[in-house]
Amino acid sequence: MNHFSYHRGTLHAEEVPLPAIAEAVGTPTYVYSKATLTRHFQMVTEAFGKHPHLICYSVKANSTLAVLRLFAEAGGGFDIVSGGELARVRQAGGDPAKTVFAGVGKTPDEMERALNAGLLMFNVESAEELEMLDAVGRRLGRRAPFALRVNPDVDARTHRHIATGLKTSKFGVPFEEAVDLYTRSRKMKGLSAVGLDCHIGSQLTRSAPMKAAISKVAGLYRSLKEQGHPLAYLDIGGGLGITYRDETPPSPQEYARTVLEASKDTGATLILEPGRVLVGNAGVLLTRVLYRKRTPAKTFVVVDVGMNDLIRPALYEAHHELQPVVKRRGKPVQVDVVGPVCESTDVLARARPIVLPQQGELYAVMSAGAYGMSMASTYNSRPRPAEVLVDGAAWRVIRERETVEDLWRGERA
Ligand SMILES: *Cc1c(COP(=O)(O)O)cnc(C)c1O
After folding, report:
1. Which end of the chain is more exposed for a tag (fewer CB within 10 A), N or C?
2. Cα–Cα dist 90/59, whole Å
3. Which residues are reported to carry the modification N6-(pyridoxal phosphate)lysine (predicted)?
């Protein structure tokens, strides 16, 4: 469900025709729909209804301040993976007391800043990290609230680059070590065990792996409670997939049913860490066609979006639909849509049947709201795109296009 649709042959974001934004702001530009962002958040909230839960939006999916502000105003918390993300959450008006901190490589400095900010809990991913957190807690004279992120060894059945719950993955502590670590933590004066956590991967399109992982972790939660650990939170991570092409991920309702069934009788407040499902289909990336190029082997369409602006196709072999901003009749031809970056992997779409566009024609790269701008870089010294938030018939720039001066800020020749 999103608010990007054609009116009289022109693609709109809510009530705003996309050419108007391209004219005013240029391309490439990320365009988000506020109504879609809000609706996605509400759908997840409503799916869990009265069951005690907290939605901690996963900041890395899209960490733009205006997006964070919107979820903070909707009552959401946040899932962060760095001190930088904590700073963003605070800058956007998010509540650290509703924020959880994951990641295998938190530095002592990041731990200290998060603890001072009054974070809800640290999702700890190794025995040595737990000892470090204890040391930081003791140094500050506080008990750091923590959950262990356990690795349930479940195949999430997603792309190998975004599966995180296998035995061979760097994430989480082995399931079998968890009980021992919670027991040891009782003697550690800088720690306080408040929850249990898992996250098995991203772009999950099937319920079975989620059910398997959560059932396993819920069982561990119950036995830890029986052993007297005063846990309150069961954090089930994020990962719910979206439709990029023809995937049929579980709806938020189905997802909630699976989660609630698998975690019943724990008495825990559930923490959810959705990222992609909230923002993915709420954003498009506007691009302009620069050149068409025919070689004996192929037809190429060169656009002004590069892998530095949207790295998902190059990094994950990801598929993004391409929609002409103004519909045009004609017979589709098979083309490779490529960006300007000097890398062979800078291909937005391979062997894609589209009506051969004119030079200057606008395209919308669909489903670009998640892991788009947050992964953008300045590789090839390309300033990063602008971002726009549409709200009904109104729109505003929420991040200005980077300038070339921004590119060398802090440098000394
Ligand atoms: C990335 C991540 C998420 C969000 O994943 P999505 O697939 O975007 O929902 C949640 N929790 C953790 C720990 C993550 O690393």
Report:
1. C
2. 12
3. 60
Task: Please report the pLDDT score of residue 33 as a whole number.
Answer: 98
Which of 124, 169, 196, 199 to mutate to test ligand 1, by most ligand atoms within 8 A of the CB atom?
199
DSSP 347-367: EEEEEEEEEPPPTT-EEEE-S
Task: In the chain, list all ranges with CATH 2.40.37.10.
Answer: 4-32+280-407
Closest CA relative to residue 198, chosen from 164, 161, 169, 226: 164
Q: What is the pLDDT of residues 327-344, one digit of tens each?
A: 999 999 999 999 999 999
| CATH number listed for the domain at residues 4-32+280-407 | 2.40.37.10
Degrees (nearest 5) of the Cα angle 232, 217, 122? 50
∠ at Cα 164 (158, 170), nearest 5°?
145
Q: Which residues of 200-228 are buried (b: 16+ CB within 10 A; e: fewer)?
A: bbbbbbebebbbbbbbbbbebbbebbeee
Phi, then psi, of 302 in degrees rounded to 5: -95, 120
Tracing tokens 């938020």 back to the chain, one arrives at 252
pLDDT tens profile 132-161: 999 999 999 999 999 999 998 887 777 777
Q: For 32-52, how does the pLDDT look when each residue is reduced to its tens digit (9 = 90+)?
A: 999 999 999 999 999 999 999
CATH C-level class of 34-277:
alpha beta
Q: Which residues' Cβ are closer than 6 Å to ligand 1?
A: 58, 60-61, 79, 81, 102, 199, 202, 237-240, 273-277, 370
Q: Could you tell me the distance, in angstroms and rounded to a whole number, from the CA of residue 199 to the centre of ligand 1? A: 7
